[in-house]
Specification:
single chain; alpha/beta; Rossmann fold; Alpha-Beta Plaits; four-stranded antiparallel beta sheet; 14 strands; about 35% helix
């Protein structure tokens, strides 16, 4: 699937009555881990349901793994896993029974489905709890069980709707580590979240929604600005700034760091020389990186 977009969306629109939830969304998304970000109500869950064919668009076209929706919905669902945000697990079933049943629905024979369920529950950290009824599961265990049912049939793509919802910091990091490991099994992922730092730590591409529209779609690496240096100083930061300006650099002084650019020159060489001239030292020196929050806020202001 290398080089083939996992999602191709053009002019997609969907409304709940008079409320326009998805408004002209267009994006082409490559293989990998994809962050679908935006505030609550931005249209993320609606878009995921459109990708699954659960909802039918009012306008526009969708291709998932090269298959048009809704014309080839069954083909898509056989190759895509879905982890919903809602608490949807049957309380009177054990994890082993439920995940085994999900594997059978994915086309595995009964014995192979049972073995596959055991393997996947071990992968997500529920091996010891696999024979417990799920009504006694903690939030973290339920999230792991939902992930297990989404990947038990070995899909090419999994759609994860707020996979870290309700988790404490330790549980959140464990879930994000599981999401990162999907790469090892050749599973692409679309991760929907309003927690931008989760996306920054797991994804290599981002689709940013606001009010049902795309603010941005592109690689996270594009958020780096390679010709701008960002430095934290041990010593007199204003003295370093003055030295850098005397060398022709453009300098911005923040609360705890300087950003420095040098038209036609190397900002990192200037940063080094300015720190030495000011008798200071580096705490940190690197490429200036724009956060997803910066992009989201800038895009929201432009839209307003």
């Amino acid at each position: 699937m290398a080089g083939t977009p996992i999602l191709s969306i053009n002019g997609l629109r969907f409304a709940y009555g008079d409320i326009l939830a998805v408004d002209g969304v267009t994006a082409e998304v490559p293989a990998g881990r994809i962050g679908l970000v935006g505030a609550n109500g931005a249209g993320k869950t609606t878009l995921l349901k459109l990708l699954l064919g659960v909802l039918k668009p009012a306008a526009g076209t969708i291709k998932v793994l090269g298959h048009p929706i809704p014309r080839q919905t069954l083909e898509v669902r056989s190759r895509v896993g879905w982890m919903p945000e809602s608490d949807c697990l049957p309380p009177d079933q054990t994890a082993a029974d439920f995940i085994g049943y999900a594997a059978e629905l994915g086309g595995l024979p009964v014995r192979a489905a049972r073995q596959r369920a055991s393997d996947i529950l071990g992968l997500v950290g529920l091996h010891e709890e696999r024979f417990r009824y799920m009504d006694g599961f903690s939030t973290g265990m339920k999230q792991r069980a939902k992930l297990a049912q989404a990947i038990v049939h070995d899909p090419d793509l999994v759609l994860l709707d707020e996979p870290t919802a309700g988790l404490d910091p330790e549980g959140r990091e464990e879930m994000l580590d599981l999401v990162r490991r999907l790469d090892d099994f050749g599973i692409n992922a679309v991760i929907s979240s309003h927690v931008l730092t989760d996306i920054e730590s797991t994804c290599d591409w981002v689709v940013m929604l606001d009010g049902g529209k795309v603010l941005r779609s592109g690689p996270l690496t594009a958020l780096s600005t390679p010709d701008v240096a960002e430095l934290e100083i041990i010593g007199d930061m204003e003295a370093v700034a003055r030295e850098a300006q005397s060398m022709g650099a453009a300098v911005e002084i923040g609360s705890d760091a300087l950003t420095l650019s040098m038209p036609g020159g190397d900002p990192f060489t200037v940063a080094r020389d300015a720190v030495v001239a000011a008798g200071a030292a580096f705490r940190r020196l690197g490429v200036k990186r724009t956060t997803l929050e910066d992009v989201f806020m800038a895009g929201s202001e432009d839209d307003g």
